Amino acid sequence: MQFSPEHPDLPQLLFDALSPLLGIVHSARTLSPGKIGILRALAAEEHVSATQLSQSIGVSQQAISLSTKELESLGFIERRKDEADRRKLWFHLTEAGHRKLESEVEMGRQALKNAIGNELSEAELKLIHDALPALAKIRKAAH
């Protein structure tokens, strides 16, 4: 289905409505979105290279290098040499990293839950709930 010209401002309106929600989530967390992205990528895969992290998160190799060094110093990730090719390095999520990711995700969820619960009426909550399948379609189409 093509985008309807009857609603030319809809993408901007949707962006304007959703961006502050991400701000609520991010402000409740202690790690940057990029570092959380690294932890998420490592939680999804057994091991990931710096290049793979850069591509999956969409940041520069330099940003990955700085972030992984910090996450490693905090004990959330570790580097391991490839068994077959000792020149390759892989990043792995530690148990502390798993716990930190779970904690960060929960802090973001709780902040959003508080904002939703404090600001919206039952009718507004129903509207958002009813819109979730359509929003999920947008997300799936983007991948």
Please give the structural blueprint:
Blueprint: H1 10-27, H2 33-44, H3 50-57, H4 61-73, E1 77-81, E2 89-93, H5 95-119, H6 122-142
Antiparallel strand pairs: 1-2
Helix pairs in contact: 1-5, 2-5, 3-4
Description:
Pfam families: MarR_2. This protein is mainly alpha-helical and 143 residues long. It has a single domain, classed as Winged helix-like DNA-binding domain superfamily/Winged helix DNA-binding domain (Arc Repressor Mutant, subunit A), CATH 1.10.10. Helices cover 68% and strands 7% of the residues. It contains six helices and two strands. It has helices at 10-27, 33-44, 50-57, 61-73, 95-119, 122-142; strands at 77-81, 89-93. The protein has a two-stranded antiparallel ribbon. Helix 1 (10-27) packs across helix 5 (95-119). The protein is elongated, with a radius of gyration of 19 Å. The two termini are 17 Å apart.
Could you give a short description of this structure?
This protein has 143 residues and is mostly helical. It is built from six helices and two strands; from the N terminus they run H-H-H-H-E-E-H-H. It has a single domain (10-142), classed as Winged helix-like DNA-binding domain superfamily/Winged helix DNA-binding domain (Arc Repressor Mutant, subunit A, Orthogonal Bundle), CATH 1.10.10.10.
Strand content: 5-15%
Largest sheet composition: 2 strands, antiparallel
Category from helices, strands and their pairing:
mainly alpha
Work out the radius of gyration: 19 Å
Order of helices and strands: HHHHEEHH
Overall pLDDT, averaged?
Answer: 90
Order of strands across the main sheet: 1-2
Q: How many structural domains are formed by the residues?
A: 1
> How many DSSP E strands?
2
- Enumerate how many helices there are, as a single number: 6
**CATH architecture call:** Orthogonal Bundle
Which consecutive residue ranges, at least 5 long each, have pLDDT under 50?
none
* Amount of helix: 55-70%
- CATH topology, what is it called? Arc Repressor Mutant, subunit A
Using the alpha-carbon principal axes, give the shape: elongated
CATH class: Mainly Alpha
Distance between the termini: 17 Å
The CATH superfamily is: Winged helix-like DNA-binding domain superfamily/Winged helix DNA-binding domain
GO molecular function, one term: DNA binding
Keywords: DNA-binding, Transcription, Transcription regulation
Protein name: MarR family transcriptional regulator
Pfam families: MarR_2
